[in-house]
Write a structure and sequence with these properties.
Elements (H helix, E strand, L loop, with lengths): L8 E5 L24 H13 L4 E5 L9 H11 L3 E6 L7 H10 L3 E5 L5 H8 L4 H14 L4 E6 L5 H11 L6 E7 L5 H5 L7 H15 L6 E4 L3 H4 L6 E2 L8 E5 L5 E4 L7 E2 L16 E2 H6 L14 H8 L4
Parallel strand pairs: 1-2, 1-9, 2-3, 3-4, 4-5, 5-6, 6-7, 7-8
Antiparallel strand pairs: 9-10, 11-12
Helix pairs in contact: 1-2, 2-3, 6-8
Length: 321
């Protein structure tokens, strides 16, 4: 991998183990099990700095179940990373003592996964009874100590009916949440075999438009991630792609136990239609998940976009202040 043109952010998957068992995750299904020793993680932190990384995010599995998570955070701070974060399901950080230890060690922010407004929906998605209450407890603790949060919600057929009402649940957190991120269901190998988990984009679009319109006058910032751009237009300014020109670094162990450094992999499971050819946003758009193309026959929602600014379109549609 070339050293140049790399965004100064990197991810280390410290463990594949997790206290959830999300319906779309393949780690347990394919028996991918590892927990990287602290010393190896320190080596990778130094290695990634050589590639220019200045920010680090620890992922999993679930990073907070790593027995050395506090020392891992402290090591990243001591090595000199400007920002140290974790991507977590939030269950263990309901323990305020652990949370304070992590913050004192150098934790600067957290991304937490939340899959519904109710325990029934969230727990059905993560396949762990009681997980919702623990995740919400973690969110409350982080809010109380003013630890910056991003809340990530993958959109699935299980939670689609609750997502619009989640805005009301999260809005009171206001500026304590940097953003609420609605993510396209990543086309993992599990999802490729369970295409029924992916809702129709027409239904997703309706929910996204409702939330984004409300967010224009509210305190809760909302963004989308990994959706085909024609689905989320006219909210392109709020659209994010993992595989765009930011060129992030990901560091994890493969099945053989070796590290790989590579750009995000999601585009390997995406494609574009012939009708995408004239689209003015073709280069920016990651495309359509193959699992969606396999399971949904009506593709009329995918239409070419012209070069037109988000704000211009919003004014025309009466969506802008």
């Amino acid at each position: 991998m070339a050293v140049s043109n790399v965004e100064p952010i990197a991810y280390i998957s410290s463990t594949s183990l997790c206290n959830n068992d999300c319906v779309f995750c393949g780690l347990k299904k394919y028996n991918i099990r590892y927990q990287i020793p602290l010393e190896e993680i320190r080596q990778q932190l130094q290695h990634l700095q050589e590639y220019g990384a200045q920010r680090i995010v620890f992922t999993g599995g679930e990073p907070t179940i790593h027995p050395d998570i506090v020392e891992i955070i402290r090591s990243a701070k001591e090595i000199g990373y400007d920002s140290v974060s974790i991507f977590t399901n939030g269950r263990r950080v309901k323990d305020i003592d652990l949370l304070r230890e992590l913050v004192e060690a150098g934790l600067k922010s957290v991304m937490v996964s939340l899959h519904g407004r109710t325990a029934q929906t969230h727990d059905q998605t993560v396949q762990r009874p009681g997980a919702f209450e623990e995740t919400m407890g973690g969110i409350r603790m982080m809010s109380e100590i003013n630890l910056p949060m991003v809340i990530n919600t993958p959109v699935t057929a299980i939670n689609l009916g609750e997502i619009a009402s989640m805005y009301d649940m999260l809005a009171p957190l206001g500026e304590k949440v940097r953003r609420w991120q609605l993510s396209n269901l990543f086309p993992t190998s599990v999802v490729m075999n369970r295409p029924e988990l992916h809702p129709a984009y027409e239904e997703i679009q309706e929910v996204i438009f409702e939330i984004m319109a409300r967010a224009q006058t509210g305190h809760l910032r909302c963004v989308t991630q990994e959706f085909p751009l024609c689905v989320v237009f006219p909210w392109l300014n709020e659209s994010r792609e993992l595989s765009d020109d930011r060129k992030q670094l990901i560091c994890r162990k493969d099945i053989q136990g070796d590290y790989r450094q590579y750009r995000p992999w999601t585009n390997l499971y995406k494609s574009k239609l012939p009708t995408c050819e004239p689209c003015g946003m073709r280069k920016r758009c990651g495309g359509i998940p193959l699992c969606y193309l396999m399971s949904h026959r009506d593709l009329s929602i995918f239409r070419p976009l012209e070069f037109i600014s988000d704000e211009s379109w919003r004014r025309q549609m009466g969506l802008s202040n």
